[in-house]
Write a structure and sequence with these properties.
Layout lengths: L17 E8 L6 E12 L15 E7 L8 E11 L1 H5 L19 E11 L2 E10 L13 H7 L2 E2 L5 E8 L6 H4 L29 E10 L19 E15 L5 E12 L4 H4 L6 H5 L10 H5 L2 H9 L5 H8 L6 H9 L21 E4 L33 H9 L4 H4 L7 H5 L5 E2 L2 E2 L39
Antiparallel strand pairs: 1-2, 2-9, 3-4, 3-10, 4-5, 5-6, 7-8, 8-9, 10-11, 10-12, 13-14
Length: 479
């Protein structure tokens, strides 16, 4: 998973679990950047009577580095507050006692509101407070028109910014049932150690929901000099983004519980899949508490990724060149460093770079001078698929990051950096869910995997409802 339940401790604390992070130049508003931070993963839509919500006791933050030192120059903070109506407090057990047609309806018994604060070099600025979240999508009887509630929950901030916080359909796709079952990839089972038939991947997250914090900000509000860069090769055209969740250090159990003391970080996320497949189990929880500026201490895990070694064992004979390269312990992985730790330097891909210097740090790196690709023409393999507006140039909601990173770990890009290395044919062919029998899927046919996206902010689809939600097993499979 991108970051769903990626570490032992955070798997016990879903409201603080950073599930996914997206950052991209907005395709329908290209003078802005959209950042989406997802939390509370793996939500079954029929989750009543106590439906999912953000944590009142969690500090959610989105950080932006605009000078390449992997330290936050701008931070957006989000704090939530749950309010019970009179009915919810005293008379009923239900989430709602009638249809919810507007966010202000008194039939909705448990509401959440939030504040947005921006911290930058000029100080701390409260941008808005008491902004309403939409309800969870209980079902068609309770909420006949969820799209209306989504529209009401998009709030404008100052100077052309927008914000949304609430439940969405999970836009990430991955075959958890196979990939964590000894690294099996269903489309490549004939090459697997335990042989099987080649079949299309299954999106395990189909039909599940997540809670999103989304903010859309004018580009000039995020750059170091307050400009909107137009030259993708300029050093100041790239920003780094990551998200964190923090709790106060002291918890005194009671009804209600008491929280006190300084905030301490317990979750973070920049690039997808790092804490899942790069960072080993023994240091996953520690990694979650650290800042990106110190990620040089984890660089050895990128230079010698255990997944690459496992591919050689689980797919014997499929990656002979990778096996020979990794057999020499002095060989490192400058390709993974470029894609995941420093940004890609100019010259590696035509018309693209997002390098932020020599500081090794886990951040999504977005070159804001690169124009967005129209969704209908976008390649879900991003830069690897010839689309410089996609991952690892930030991350769009539909980018197939699992397939991209599988290819990268398998050495598909290593020959671009180490000229003597010839990538194995299997490395370029790898994919997980986002492909069909004839090759990679497009944005248009991702709906076959139970995915739906919006063309405008907040981009992730309206959440699946609890009454008639299809299970992952009932969804059609592309192939």
């Amino acid at each position: 998973m991108s970051s769903h339940r990626e570490a032992p401790e955070i798997s016990r604390d879903p409201v603080a679990d950073s599930a996914d992070l997206y950052a991209f130049v907005s395709p329908d508003n290209p003078s802005t950047v959209t950042i989406i931070a997802n939390y509370v993963p793996l939500q079954q839509p029929a989750g009543g009577p106590n439906f999912y919500e953000f944590g009142n006791d969690v500090l959610y933050e989105v950080h932006i580095d605009n000078d390449g030192d992997a330290r936050a120059d701008i931070t957006y903070q989000f704090r939530f507050n749950t309010v019970l109506t009179n009915n919810g407090a005293h008379d009923v057990f239900l989430y709602n006692t009638g249809q919810i047609r507007h966010l202000s309806d008194s039939t909705w018994n448990r509401k959440q509101f939030y504040s947005v604060t921006r911290v930058d070099t000029r100080g701390t600025h409260l941008l808005a407070k008491d902004l309403a979240c939409p309800p969870c999508n209980v079902g068609k009887n309770s909420i006949p028109d969820y799209a209306r509630l989504t529209a009401e929950a998009v709030h404008s901030l100052s100077s052309g910014s927008y914000v949304f916080a609430g439940q969405r359909a999970d836009g990430f796709y991955v075959d958890l049932g196979s990939i964590f079952d000894l690294g099996d990839l269903r489309p490549f089972q004939p090459d697997f150690l335990l042989k099987g038939a080649a079949v299309a991947g299954v999106n395990t997250l189909a039909g599940l929901n997540v809670h999103s914090i989304a903010v859309q900000v004018p580009i000039q509000h995020l750059t170091s000099d307050g400009s909107r860069p137009s030259n993708y090769g300029a050093p100041d055209s790239t920003i780094g983004i990551w998200t964190t969740a923090s709790r106060q250090k002291t918890l005194i159990y009671g009804n209600p519980a008491t929280h006190a003391g300084p905030w301490t970080q317990i979750s973070r996320l920049g690039n997808p899949l790092i804490n899942e497949v790069i960072i080993p189990m023994g240091v996953k929880d520690y990694w979650n508490t650290q800042a990106p500026a110190g990620d040089a201490s984890f660089a050895g895990y990128y230079d010698h990724p255990s997944l690459a070694a496992l591919l050689n064992v689980l797919y014997p004979g499929a990656f002979p060149n990778l096996a020979a390269y990794t057999a020499n312990s002095s060989n490192t992985r400058p390709d993974l460093d470029a894609v995941l730790l420093t940004g890609v330097p100019a010259g590696l891909f035509t018309g693209f770079q997002n390098n932020t210097g020599t500081t090794k740090a886990d951040m999504l790196r977005l070159n804001v001078a690169i124009k967005p690709t129209a969704t209908a023409k976008a390649a879900i393999l991003g830069v690897v698929g010839g689309d410089s507006a996609g991952f690892p140039n930030g991350r769009r909601v539909f980018d197939d990051v699992v397939s991209i990173e599988l290819k990268a770990v398998a050495g598909a890009l290593l020959g671009d950096v180490v000229k003597s290395f010839k990538p194995d044919a299997a490395a370029g062919a790898l994919y997980d869910v986002g492909g069909t029998a004839s090759g990679p899927a497009s944005v248009a046919n991702l709906s076959a995997f139970g995915l739906n996206y919006k063309d405008s902010f907040p981009y992730l689809g309206d959440p699946w409802d609890g009454f008639d939600n299809p299970s992952a097993q009932s969804l059609p499979v592309a192939g």
